[in-house]
Structures are given as C-alpha cells and as structure tokens.
Specification:
Blueprint (H helix, E strand, L loop, with lengths): L20 E5 H15 L3 E5 L15 H5 L4 E3 L4 H13 L3 E5 L10 H8 L2 H4 L9 E6 L14 H5 L5 E3 L4 H13 L4 E6 L7 E5 L11 E4 L4 E5 L4 H12 L5 E5 L2 E3 L3 H11 L2 E8 L4 H13 L8 E5 L9 H4 L3 H12 L2
Parallel strand pairs: 2-3, 2-4, 4-5, 5-7, 6-7, 10-11, 10-13, 13-14
Antiparallel strand pairs: 1-8, 6-12, 9-11
InterPro entries: THDP-binding, Transketo_C/PFOR_II, Transketolase-like_Pyr-bd, Transketolase_C
Protein name: 3-methyl-2-oxobutanoate dehydrogenase (2-methylpropanoyl-transferring)
Keywords: Oxidoreductase
C-alpha cells in the first residue's frame, strides 16, 4: 500500500485476516515496540521518572516493569542530567538504554550530557566507542500544558552533529522509527507529539519492520503546491489540503518524520514539480529547523520556484497557557500561507 492509498481500518486492534494489519494509536505503538525490543534484545533497558510502577505520566510504559522486572525497567531520581549521563555510560558499556525524559521541556538539565558526551563520543574516540541510546520524550502542544509542558525544542538537537532526531506522526512510523532507533549505533532523540498519542490511529503490520531514518513519507500527491511538516502538525496539514482541494488546488503533503537526517531528495523533487512550498512546524519561528529546509530548497531548486518559500510556525514567545489554539499552526494559518504562495 502506498502512502497515498487509503484502506478502511480494522477495528478493535484485532489483526485483519487478509492483510495481517491492525489498528492501534500512537502511544500503543510506542509501548508495544519497547516491549518487543526488550523481548528481542536482553541489552535493552528502560528508565526515567515514574516509568516503572506508574507507567509514565502518559502511561506509555504501563505494564513493562511488571513484565520485565525492576532491573530492566526502573524509576530514577528527578534529575535529567543523571538520566542522560547514566544512559551514556550504559550505552558505552554495551547496553541499549531507552531513557524517558518526562517532557521535552525538561531536557535542559541533561543538555550538556547530550551534546558534549552522547553526540561526540564516536568522533572523539576515533570510533572506539559509540553511544547507541534512545532518549524518548513527549513534545509539542495541543494539551494546554503551558510553557513548561508544551514546547517544541527539536532545533536545539538538530543543530548538534552526532545526534539523530526523529518525530513520528502515525502509529506505523512510531513503531518503525523506534525500532530503527533502538537497533542503531547512534544516540537518537525520539520526540513523541503528545497531542497525537491517542488521536493518531492507523494500521500497523503484525510482522517486524523498520522505517529508515532520512526517508520522508508522501501522505498525498499533488501538483500545485508542496506542503511539508512533521509531528503534531500533520493532521492540520491534511485538513488544509482538504480545504484547498475543495477549491480545486492540488496539494502534495510530505511528512518529514526524520529531521536528522532529512529527506532532501524527496522534498526537492516535490518542489521541483509543484514550484511552491509551505513549511509547517510548531516550534518558534526564529532558528526553526524548517529554516534549514527552506534554505536548501532555494539553494538547490531556485529556478523551479514560482513563489517564495512560505513558513508557518509557532510565535517567538514562550508557549502560552490560554492561547493554545492561537499559538499552534492550525489549518486556517496554513491555508492562508498556501493562498499567498498560490497568488504570488
């Protein structure tokens, strides 16, 4: 099945007899994948604040301590620096740690460990040591969490050589990308868009599969404009594309899903075809990762553009408590940016 084809989902999580797929939500995909990787590889360990008996603040790790025991699934002190530092040490010594940071906003205390240790250990050791570890963290807005529970800090980490950075928007991608992250040889920052935890539902195969880093997904093919995003904004891109389609505009929707590395070839071929691009993310506009995408587009396919590259992002303010829907790039703001590009 291609990214642009649709199928009626199997309900209730039961496998479809014909296709071998079933429908689950994004948080179920995360929980299942962690369990499957722990079953597959005894080196995989899971730890973080309240991930054990409670199962995490969003219940993403519910039942895993009971299943695998407190030596492989355990709670930590409220110290992100310690969580990340322990993960680096475990990874260097041969384990496959999955460390949960309770919210992406809380990663600051562990920042030095991430950028000075995990990201650099391969290079500074001349390849003698690696840090195959995954830092999972709920990210983004849409749940009225305010400025300590709703930020989108991915640009800090995409700027750091040595890290892989991904953000799925579907259960299929959550499973495939998380498997790739756990099985890889590099430190991975695995952002999970919390507003899609239970809202994003989709089919996943029963068999083992991976989604390789650096491969975007074409969610909808089109010829008039390329609409590009990742993570929590993807349902809004689809709504904007539907609204434009009702007016006769053919929009191509691309989900980057992997930010480092990102799929330059697929993005550039799409923009060459359509001549217009609008880039969407939740993060504040200044130093937004999508600014890098915009630069590469104008550098590589400038002669194909019929309008300036547009960008829809969060505002350059702390994430507000009460103006959640105003801050986030909703369908109306996305459509408006597309209309500007179409009318240029």
């Amino acid at each position: 099945m291609t990214a642009t084809q649709e199928r009626t989902p199997t309900q209730g999580g039961a496998p479809d007899a014909e296709t071998g797929t079933r429908t689950i939500n994004l948080i179920q995909a995360v929980t299942e994948t962690i369990a499957e990787e722990m079953e597959r590889d005894s080196r995989v360990v899971l730890f973080g604040e309240d991930v054990g008996a409670r199962g995490g603040v969003f219940m993403a790790t519910a039942g895993l301590q009971e299943r695998f025991g407190p030596r492989r699934v355990f709670d930590t002190p409220l110290s992100e620096a310690s969580i990340v530092g322990a993960a680096v040490g475990m990874a260097v010594r041969g384990l496959r740690p999955i460390a949960e940071i309770q919210f992406a906003d809380y990663m600051g205390p562990g920042f030095d460990q991430i950028i000075s240790q995990a990201a650099k250990i391969r290079y500074r050791s001349g390849g003698q040591f690696t840090a195959p570890m995954v830092i999972r963290t709920p990210s983004g807005g849409g749940v009225k969490g305010g400025h300590h529970h709703s930020q989108s800090p991915e640009s800090y980490y995409t700027h750091t050589p040595g890290l892989k950075v991904v953000m799925p928007s579907t259960p299929y991608d959550a499973k495939g990308l998380l498997r790739s992250a756990v099985r890889g040889e590099d430190p991975v920052i695995f952002f999970e868009p919390k507003r899609l935890y239970r809202a994003a539902k989709g089919e996943v195969p029963a068999h083992d599969y991976v989604v390789r880093f650096g491969e975007a997904a074409v969610r909808r093919e089109g010829t008039d404009l390329s609409l590009i995003g990742y993570g929590g904004v993807m349902p809004d891109l689809e709504k904007a594309a539907d609204a434009l389609a009702a007016e006769g505009v053919s929009v191509e929707v691309i989900d980057l899903r992997s930010l480092v590395p990102w799929d330059k070839d697929r993005v550039l071929s799409s923009v060459e075809k359509t001549g217009r691009a609008v880039l969407v993310s939740e993060a504040p506009r200044i130093s937004n990762f999508m600014g890098e995408v915009a630069y590469v587009i104008q550098e590589q396919v400038f002669d194909s553009l019929t309008a300036p590259v547009g960008q829809v992002a969060g505002f350059d303010t702390p994430y507000p408590y009460v103006q959640d829907k105003v801050y986030l790039p909703g369908p109306n703001r996305i459509v408006a940016a597309c209309v500007r590009a179409l009318n240029y």
